[in-house]
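In the current project phase, we have settled on a layout for protein records. One protein thus recorded is set out beneath this paragraph:
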Amino acid sequence: MSDEKTHDQTDPLIGRLIDQRYRVTRRLARGGMATVYVAQDERLERPVALKVMHPYLAESDAFVERFHREARAAARIVHPGVVSVFDQGVVSGQGFLVMELIDGTNLRALLNAQGAFTIPQALRYTTDILEALRAAHRMGVIHRDIKPENILVPTDGPAKVADFGLARAASEGSMFTTGNMLGTVAYIAPEIVLTTEADARSDLYSVGIMLYEMLTGAVPWADESALQIASHHVSDDVPSPSATLPWIPREIDDLVAVLTARDPANRCADASDALDLVARAAASIPSDIANRRAEVAHEDSRSDSETTALNTEVMSTQLTQAMPALAVTTATALPAALAVTTATALPAATAVTTATALPAATAVTTVHTSTSTETPSAGELPAKMSTRAILLAVIAFLLIVAASFGGSWWWTEYGPGSYLTMPTTTGRDLADVQADLGAIGLASSVEEEFSDDVQSGIVTHSDPEGGSSVHKSTNVQLYVSKGIDMKDVPNVVGKGQDEASRTLTDAGLALGAVTDAYSEDVPPGQVISQSVAAGTSLAHDSTVDVVLSKGREPRTVPTLTGKGASAAKSSIEALGLVASPTEAYSDTVPEGQVISQQTREGSTVYRGDSVSYTVSKGPEMVTVPDVVGLQRQEARNKLEGAGLTVQEDLILGGFFNTVRSSNPAGGSKVKKGSTVTISVM
C-alpha cells in the first residue's frame, strides 16, 4: 500500500464535510505550516484545494495571524497568473483556506525532470511570474518567497504564482515573527538578510535567481551551506549565466544582473520595467541557440541544497553543532600571541582548549590519544637528566616549532602580510592594469561599459579603487570603457509624433525639433521625413528632427464668371488645381467667355482637386428650311421643327393654301428662335 493511500486511510479529515460545504476527498501535499487536500465544493459543484493549518501552529497567535493574512492578501489579487483564494474558516480549531485547484505540476518538478530550460522557455515562465507579481505589487502585496516550488504550471494557460502565505502588504511592518526568517535562502534578497525589510524589488531579485536556475540548472553557490549562501547574497554579485554556459548571450547576462543587483536601487523599479527588459531580451535571442539548453543532471543526481530554508533554527543548529577535530585551529584575535591547538586523533569527548595568556609567544597544547610514549633508554641519556626533564625539553621544542610555523602562516594568510596595495587603475589601458595586478598576485574580472568621455579599452574605475589596501585573495573588478554608446537610427516615417518619440527613445535616442508641412501623400499628424536617415549610427541620446504632415494643402477657388476660357484655365492651374470646363450656348454671353462656375467661388479645395465651370459657345444658329411650294401647315411644321417662329402673310386670303415665299429665304442662317414670315396664296 502506498504512503498516500496510508495517509488517506488514517487522516481523520478524509471524507469529512468542512464548513457544511467542502467534502475532503484526498491528501495532496504536506508542508511546514499546513496540509493541502483535494476537496469538492458541494455548493458550487467544483473541485478545490483545501489548505489546513497544522494543529500545533494553532497555539501560536503569530502563526494564526500569518495564516489568515495569507487569505486576505491573496484574495485581493485577481489575475490569471495568481492562484485564487476563495474562502477561509476554522475547523477543529485549525484555520483553513479554500483555493483554486490547479491541474498540472510546479516549476520545481519541471526543473527536476528537464535539468534546465531553453532561453525562450525560461523567459516565458519569467514573464508569467512578473505579470502576476505586477498585479500583486499594484495591490501593495509583496510575495517574499518566490521560488520554483511556489510556481504552479497548469496543463494549459500561464504559470501561476501560489502561496502568498509569506506575503504581506508592504505597510504591515517587519517580516520577522517569533525569531523566524521567512523565505528560502537560495532566492532571498540581500536587503532581507541585512534589514528584514522587503519591497517589490525583493521579489524581482528572487525572480532573477530563478531565471539563473532555469538557464543553468542550479542556483548560484548551490554547493555551499545556507549561511554561506546568505553571505554571498549580501557580499557578492550573482554570477553571469554565461560564466557557466558561454553560449548564453550578453542580453541574458544583463537581464539577470539588473534583476539581481545587490543594491535594490540598481534593480528595476517594478515588475513592469522588468517585463520590458524581458521582452527586449527575448527579441534579441539568435535563432541558432533558441532550442539550446544546459546539459545538467536530472533530479536523481542533483543536490537539493538550493532549496534550503534559512531561519533562526537552522542557523543556530549550524553554529552550535560539534566541529570535527582539526590539525591546527587558529584564533586570530588574540593579543600579542597566537593561540594554536593541535589535536591528533582526538576522541569525540576530548576537550580542546586554547591558551591566550602567553606573552610574545605562541601557546601550543598537544594532545595524544595514546597513553604510551617512546623515549630513549636511560643509558642513552645524560646521567643527571631525568625522564621528566627530557619530556619538558621535547615539549619546549615543539612549542618553538609550532609558534614559528603558525605565526608565519597567520601573518601571510590573515595578518598584515596578507594585504597588498592596489596599483593605479583609472585612466590606464586594460592590458597594462591586468599585468600590474597579475604581477602582485591579484586576480581580476572585467566588465565593459559605455563611456562618453573615456576611449575604448581604457579602465574607467575599479572595485576596489587603485591605491587601496586589499587582501591578496581579493578579486578586483575592472570596468573598461567600450567608448561612446552608438545607436542605430530607426525609421519613423509614417508614424505619429508620440509613436515616433517612443521608437526613438527605445532605440536610445530622442525626438528633436518637430516642424510641419503640407503633404499630398502622408496623412495629417504622421512623419513625412526625418533629419537623419534610418540605419545611421548616432551617439546615444542624440536627437532626430522630424517633419509632420499637415495633410493636403488647401486652396481657395477664384472667380471665373466673365473671364475668357484661357484666362480661367490659367488661374485654376496656377493654384495647383485641375480645370474642368464644359460648353453651352448663350444668347447673352459672347462665345469663349465663362457663363458660370459649378465649383463655387471662395470655396476651399485642395491641391489636385478639379474646378468645374461653363464656357459660352455663343448663340445657337439654325438653317431656315426651304418651304416654298409646300402647303401652309406642312411649311409651318417644318419651320417650327427647326426651332423657328412662324409668321404668315396671306395673299388673296390664302385661297390656294400654298407657300409662295419665306423671309428669310430657305437656306439662310439665323439664331434659333428667330421669326420666319411665309407668304401663303
